Amino acid sequence: MTAMLLTEIDHVAIAVPDLDAAIAYYAETFGATVAHRERIDSDGVEEALLNVADSYVQLLTPTSDSSPVAKYLEKKGPGIHHVGYRVADCAAALQSVKDHGGLVIDEQPRPGSRGTTVAFIHPKGAFGTLIELVQE
Fold first, then answer.
1. 38 catalytic, yes or no?
2. Which one of the listed residues 46, 47, 81, 135 is annotated catalytic?
3. Could you give the maximum distance between any two Cα atoms of the chain, in Å?
4. CB atoms within 10 A of CB 1
5. Which of 22, 25, 103, 134 is deepest in the core (most CB within 10 A)?
6. H or E segment at 103?
7. Which of 46, 81, 82, 135 is catalytic?
8. What is the average pLDDT across 106-125?
9. CA–CA gap between residue 29 and residue 80 (Å, rounded)
10. Is the pLDDT reported for residue 127 higher than 90?
């Protein structure tokens, strides 16, 4: 049996066409505040992280028409894009996915927002859910 590699939910990512409008909705409706906001040019997105206990709601909007989030919004509209799980060792968790026949988007861990190390797992190998492994 494999040891538990997921330590907690890091974030639930929601693709939105208007980041400021989504931030305003969460602020006005739930009193949520932005803990971190960052543009990630390598992924073609801008994010806003809203604290929910020790996790986040990550609001994502595309910064280019070729961004995967832009394609997602065009195909499916706004909504849950992926789930990010915290891991102690991103490389080990990614290797476990590969060892168990999972499909990966990132062959190696790479830099993420907030100084994290991340890797994405393809939804076709994860029961329809895009998964992000996040090492702080």
1. no
2. 47
3. 46
4. 3
5. 134
6. none
7. 82
8. 96
9. 18
10. yes
11, 46, 81, 135: the active-site residue: 11
Q: What's the residue count for the chain?
A: 136
- pLDDT for res 3: 84
Domain covering 6-135, topology: 2,3-Dihydroxybiphenyl 1,2-Dioxygenase; domain 1 (3.10.180)
Q: Is 82 a catalytic residue?
A: yes
**Over residues 95-111, mean pLDDT:** 96
End-to-end distance of the chain based on CA atoms, in angstroms?
A: 25
**What mean pLDDT comes out for the span 100-104?**
95
132 is catalytic: yes
Q: Cα-flanking dihedrals φ and ψ of residue 76, to 5°?
A: -115, -15
Task: Give the pLDDT of residue 129.
Answer: 96
Which token pair is 98? Answer: 């590969």
pLDDT tier, 1 (very low <50, low <70, confident <90, very high otherwise): low
Give 16's contacts (C-beta < 8 A, 6+ positions apart): 22, 59, 60, 61, 73, 78
CB 25 within 8 A of CB 18: no
Residue tagged 């639930």 (tokens): 12
**Coil, strand, or helix at residue 71?**
helix
